[in-house]
Specification:
about 90 residues; alpha+beta; Alpha-Beta Plaits; five-stranded mixed beta sheet; 2 helices; about 40% strand
């Protein structure tokens, strides 16, 4: 398996709606590593590492988001993996 990395900036109504927990559950189910956190500008930032196809699955799920949220845009930046994460976590 070739590990890749992706950094995602998610915009829309994504804070206060369980979006980080939604991202955490999706990434954990896909066995990806990394983290997700709220940004001060109202967006959510996520970094994930794993197999490219699984990362693309995560992006597809995050475009939909939780029922109470509304995603307007996801900025996707493919990056070199750090291979330093042991799991996926919610950061504060």
């Amino acid at each position: 398996m070739i590990v890749q990395g992706v950094q995602l900036k998610i915009r829309g109504h994504v804070q206060g709606v369980g979006y980080r927990w939604f991202a955490y559950r999706a990434a954990t189910r896909l066995k990806l590593t990394g983290w997700v956190k709220n940004n001060y500008d109202g967006s959510v930032l996520a970094v994930a590492e794993g197999e490219r196809g699984l990362l693309e699955d995560l992006i597809a799920e995050l475009k939909v988001g939780p029922m109470n949220g509304h995603v307007t845009d996801i900025e996707v930046l493919w990056v070199d993996p750090t291979n330093t994460f042991s799991g996926f976590e919610i950061r504060h």
